[in-house]
Write a structure and sequence with these properties.
Oligomer: single chain
Largest sheet: 17 strands, parallel
Length: about 550
């Protein structure tokens, strides 16, 4: 479209009448207005700002003022091709490239369609404008894999970021794969042989971030995965042989076979590892973590044990001298026990999105710096009888060989999150006895199908909860319903018993929060609060 290209083309610099100059000054031209601090920046900085804007917005900066008019022509081009509001249509690319003499920083065309713009695409990559790209994002929109054209990697020597989606790497492409500066590589639903993948990663001498999802061997039939994106594929061993520089790795929809020997899994600089919808044995996971000498963050979601289909009691064991944060997100099929054997630096153990019916055991053998834990899901028993046992929620926490309890407390934990029904105050109070040094408590309410009856607190003042007496400074209630009697009683208990409380936050929907915020002193008995320093904050959300 000529109209789209014309909007981005450099405007001619014509003389101005006195009236035009006055209009320019009133419109904010930096030549006449002294308070335009952004326009006073050097051309190089303004050019960088323009190159970070979406394609259309970058071109429109020419209309800001006379000062900005020539900048677009020399700024590195950020060219995003597609059908979205911020991108330019493919029909306008040729004109934009021909009228922009400066270099291009980024080229993005993730929605290629076979047979469309094939000739134009080749001419774009052979143009001077795309000769030294820094970022390239290219892929096909359909489920059918198409061969990756050789000319796409013409800028391999200058690329810093490369993302390839739904492409087939042919064997002839190997000589072109030398990426001395590449830092981020994403391969999504690509077909590639082990030798080509090994050559690709061997040519990435500065690679820091690797994202692998549904990478299959070139020998596998396409029908084995196309159209079924959730099925995992074997992880190519070549990925593990070229990991000496990687800082961040994200592996999605892949299987770690037992042939993945510990000797091949060495990531000496890896700091962040994400495993999503992967299948692996406990031995392979242990070998993988043992090879991550600098790992600080581990994220696992939908991790399955390779030898189990929801049968037996498989265990994931984690031992790492550098690990600081573990997140076990969503249900991990077949895994019923997570054992933290030795993690001297571990400070955060997060379990978001756990299902109330999940049967999970967390056993902490050694984690002397563990301070943040949760959210722990609680579940109301079907017989509607509250139980004081720590495993009533089918979610058990061990410290060493014994269940966490008031006699076997976790003194290092300072921040705890719980998912609870509003009728479980007594059970929550029992849990607080396990964490005597707790400083922050976050309770995320959920509505249980069973009819919630009024629950009176059985808190015995003669057996005080240590954290309520000396440590608990902040309490947060999420999904709060101010009109619900049980939740009001829940909140009121902490107002009346937390002796060093500094702040209590209520997060809920507008109509519920307003009812409590309108008269908190009366509803929560603030005048009788245990801590005179306690403050109350109400946060609302209009979206349900």
């Amino acid at each position: 479209m000529e109209k789209e290209a014309a909007a981005l083309a450099p405007a001619p610099d014509k003389g101005e009448s006195s009236g035009a100059k006055g209009m320019r000054a009133r419109s904010g031209d930096c030549d006449d207005v002294t308070d335009d601090f952004i326009s006073r920046l050097p051309d190089a900085i303004l050019g960088t700002i323009i190159s970070l804007l979406p394609t259309k917005d970058g071109g429109r900066t020419q209309a800001l003022s006379r000062r900005w008019r020539p900048l677009w022509r020399g700024a590195p081009l950020n060219l995003e091709v597609g059908t979205t509001a911020s991108s330019v249509p493919p029909s306008a690319v040729s004109q934009i490239i021909s009228r922009h003499p400066g270099p291009s920083r980024r080229f993005s065309f993730p929605g290629l369609r076979a047979g469309e713009f094939d000739a134009e695409l080749e001419s774009w990559f052979h143009s001077r404008a795309l000769a030294n790209l820094e970022e390239l994002d290219i892929g096909y929109a359909s489920q059918t894999i198409r061969p990756l054209p050789l000319f796409v990697l013409r800028s391999a020597s200058t690329l810093l970021v490369l993302k390839i989606n739904k492409c087939d790497f042919c064997d002839q492409i190997a000589p072109a794969m030398n990426f001395p500066l590449l830092k981020q590589l994403s391969l999504i639903r690509v077909s590639i042989s082990g030798d080509v993948l090994h050559g690709l990663l061997s040519g990435c001498h500065a690679l820091e971030s690797l994202f692998i999802s549904e990478v299959r061997s070139a020998r596998c039939p396409p029908a084995s995965w196309l159209g079924v994106p959730r099925i995992s594929k074997p992880l190519p061993l070549s990925v593990l042989r070229s990991a000496s520089t990687i800082l961040i790795a994200k592996i999605w929809n892949c299987d770690f076979s037992d042939e993945t020997l510990p000797s091949t899994m060495v990531f000496p600089l890896l700091e962040q590892l994400s495993l999503i919808n992967v299948s692996m044995s406990g031995d392979v996971l242990h070998g993988l973590l043992s090879g991550c000498h600098a790992l600080e963050t581990l994220f696992m979601s939908k991790v399955r044990t390779a030898s189990c289909l929801r049968v037996g009691s498989p265990t994931l064991r984690i031992s790492s001298p550098t690990l600081r944060s573990i997140c076990l997100s969503r249900r991990s099929y077949g895994i019923t026990e997570l054992v933290i054997e030795d993690a001297p630096c571990l400070g955060r153990l997060l379990i978001p999105y756990s299902d109330q019916d999940d049967c999970v055991t967390i056993r902490v053998v050694r984690a002397p710096k563990l301070e943040i834990l949760g959210p722990i899901p609680f579940r109301v028993p079907k017989q509607e009888v509250l139980c004081d046992s720590p495993d009533f929620a089918k979610f058990r926490i061990f410290q060493g060989m014994n269940l966490v309890s008031s006699a076997n407390s976790m003194c290092t934990v300072k921040v705890l999150a719980l998912r609870s029904s509003s009728c479980e105050l007594h059970a929550v109070l029992n849990v607080l006895r396990w964490f005597p040094c707790l400083e922050k408590l976050c309770v995320m309410f959920y509505h249980h199908k069973l009819k919630e009856k009024k629950i009176e607190s059985q808190y015995d003042q003669l057996l005080p909860i240590e954290c309520l007496q000396t440590h608990l400074k902040k309490v947060v209630f999420k999904s709060y319903v101010g009109t619900e009697r049980q939740q009001l009683a829940f909140a009121k208990f902490f107002v009346l018993n937390a002796k060093v409380l500094n702040k209590m936050e209520f997060e809920g929907y507008d109509d519920y929060i307003v009812s409590t915020a309108a008269c908190p002193h009366k509803i929560l008995q603030v005048e009788n609060r245990a801590s005179r320093d306690a403050e109350f904050e109400f946060k609302s959300s209009a979206v349900r």
